[in-house]
Amino acid sequence: MDCLFCKIVEGTIPSKKVFESENILAFHDITPAAPTHVLIIPKKHIPSMNEVSHEDMSLIAEIHQVAQQVASDMGVSESGYRLINNCGPDGEQTVHHLHYHLLGGARLGTLTGISSSHK
């Protein structure tokens, strides 16, 4: 499989890890969009949120628990942060391995969800 995040999980591509468990890996994004920008992924390859099965729901819960811990560890839990999952082409998903972006460390702009061409 030619999946960037699977290669990070197996260690063939290095990452700056902030959390690792049996099922979940969290690491710094190489092109941060905020002062704190961490990616949180399941170690199991799931292409996107659309492919999450009923059996995978415990992984989603674990990802959210890890997000709480990482936000606290990174010092952004009190000031606030965003947890984002991009799904599919219109959602701007660029890596086809389920992942969440944890963004914080600064006041983040308003999200409208609509590009200027659709207003």
TrEMBL record:
Chain location of the short sequence motif Histidine triad motif per the record: 97-101
Active site: 99 (tele-amp-histidine intermediate)
PROSITE patterns assigned: HIT_2
Any one GO MF annotation of this record: catalytic activity
CDD domains found in the cross-reference section: PKCI_related
Coiled coil, from the record: none
Pfam family, one: DcpS_C
Domain HIT positions: 4-113
InterPro entries for the chain: Histidine_triad_HIT, HIT-like, HIT-like_sf
Name recorded for this polypeptide: Histidine triad nucleotide-binding protein
Native species: Paenibacillus crassostreae
Lineage: Bacteria, Bacillati, Bacillota, Bacilli, Bacillales
